[in-house]
């Protein structure tokens, strides 16, 4: 019998306990990877290359406060801006839903065409969208999810605004980071609200990333000391500030992850201590045969590390396969667009499992090191 076989036989001596230990590590690693991925998706929203050229200007006081529509004339004159459109969040519920996971935005169709440049029309005609005030532009993911087609009607019950929308699908877009949203005419929203002369935010595209900071400074300065000061920021910064409204997600998920790891440590340390305690007599015999402390520690470490590594492989690999091949939008009802288990996250899970294997071998190894041959031989007599 070689040393590797000896270690494997000891690790799998109690097959039920070994299986439960591996399963515990696998489930905990899968949960840890899922939590880390969720934290990443909720705190680092995905962005396209074109996002670096887009800027959003909102009311400096609060995102809920509207901006005067007359600001458009001023923004149009600022150097470095290629296109600008009103961009007002409607926030309605589709059909009979109480919570709709995709957003609806009121825009100027002609101007908006030059802002989301990475989006391509998959079905229908953008010209029809521009011409028909009661039409809308729908993301391909939403079209697929609800089984819709060009020409179908979409009805939204207002929650943020005291108005309902009845829209006809004129075109379908795809190729953006988020192919779920619905865009409709801002003039229609103005009509439904009695033409209040306001917009939610301004959506801009600049000439290049080099002039983005200058454009942001110019937009902020243009409305400085007015009744409606604005805060312009890149699309990325706007997304991050919007996500921060959910609260300190990092602390919440980090706390849960810590509890998961701590529980996993307790399980594995207890399991290894029990397994070694049952073999004190055998370890004492090995001592008597001339095996040194560091060699016995190596046996225990290899056994602990092997069980942890096997559990990590099953758990991390299973989590990656589950979230990679799952229909995510169906499961989360459209709440999540992406849920990418990155190599870095998998490496983090593997590192935790490796440290776990090392840590769970410490206490049993100390007990074996302190054990005398005579005491060990008497243990299970």
Q: Kindly estimate the percentage of residues that lie in beta strands according to DSSP.
A: 15-25%
Terminal-residue CA separation: 26 Å
Helix content: 40-55%
Compute the CA-based radius of gyration: 30 Å
Encode the helix/strand succession as letters. Answer: HHEEHEEEHEHEHEEEHEEHEHHHHHHH
Q: What is the number of domains?
A: 2
Q: What's the number of helices? A: 15
Computed structural class: alpha+beta
Largest sheet: 11 strands, mixed
What's the total number of strands?
13
- Poorly predicted segments: none
Describe this entry's structure for a reader:
The chain has 15 helices and 13 strands. With 381 residues, the chain is α+β, with helices and mostly antiparallel strands. It has 2 domains: 3-45 and 247-379, no CATH class; 66-227, no CATH class. The strands form 2 sheets. Strands 1, 3, 4, 5, 6, 7, 8, 9, 10, 12 and 13 form an 11-stranded mixed sheet that branches. The protein has a two-stranded antiparallel sheet with strand order 2-11. Helix 1 (3-11) crosses helix 12 (293-325) and helix 11 packs antiparallel against helix 15 (373-379). It is elongated and about 90 Å long. The two termini are 26 Å apart. The mean pLDDT is 82.
């Amino acid at each position: 019998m070689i040393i590797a076989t000896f270690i494997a036989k000891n690790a799998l001596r109690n097959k039920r306990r070994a299986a439960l230990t591996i399963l515990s590590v696998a489930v905990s690693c899968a949960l840890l990877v899922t939590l880390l991925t969720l934290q990443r998706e909720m705190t680092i929203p995905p962005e396209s290359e074109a996002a670096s050229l887009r800027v959003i200007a909102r009311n400096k006081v609060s995102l809920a406060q509207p901006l005067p529509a007359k600001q458009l004339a001023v923004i149009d004159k600022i150097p470095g801006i290629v296109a600008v459109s009103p961009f007002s969040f409607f926030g309605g519920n589709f059909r009979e839903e109480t919570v709709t996971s995709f957003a609806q935005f009121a825009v100027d169709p002609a101007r908006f065409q030059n802002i989301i440049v990475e989006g391509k029309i998959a079905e229908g005609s953008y010209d029809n969208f521009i011409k028909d005030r009661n039409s809308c532009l729908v993301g391909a993911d939403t079209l697929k999810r609800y089984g819709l087609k060009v020409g179908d009607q979409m009805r939204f019950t207002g929650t943020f605004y005291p108005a309902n929308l009845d829209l006809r699908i004129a075109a379908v877009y795809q190729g953006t980071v988020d192919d779920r949203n619905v865009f409709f005419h801002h003039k229609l929203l103005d009509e439904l609200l009695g033409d209040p002369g306001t917009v939610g935010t301004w959506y801009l595209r600049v000439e290049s990333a080099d002039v983005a900071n200058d454009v942001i400074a110019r937009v902020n300065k243009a409305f400085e000391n007015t009744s409606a000061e604005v805060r312009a920021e890149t699309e990325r910064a706007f997304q991050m500030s919007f996500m921060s409204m959910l609260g300190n997600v990092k602390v919440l998920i980090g706390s849960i992850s810590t509890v998961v790891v701590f529980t996993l440590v307790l399980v594995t340390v207890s399991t290894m201590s029990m397994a070694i305690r049952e073999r004190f007599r055998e370890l004492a015999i090995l001592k008597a045969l001339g095996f040194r402390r560091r060699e016995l520690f190596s046996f225990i470490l290899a056994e602990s590390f092997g069980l942890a590594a096997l559990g990590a492989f099953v758990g991390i690999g299973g989590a990656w396969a589950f979230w990679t091949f799952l229909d995510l939008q169906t499961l989360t009802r459209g709440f999540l667009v992406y849920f990418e288990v990155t190599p870095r996250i998998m490496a983090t899970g593997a590192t935790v499992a490796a440290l776990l294997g090392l840590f769970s071998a410490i206490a049993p190894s100390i007990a074996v090191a302190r054990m005398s041959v005579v005491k060990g031989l008497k243990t299970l007599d």
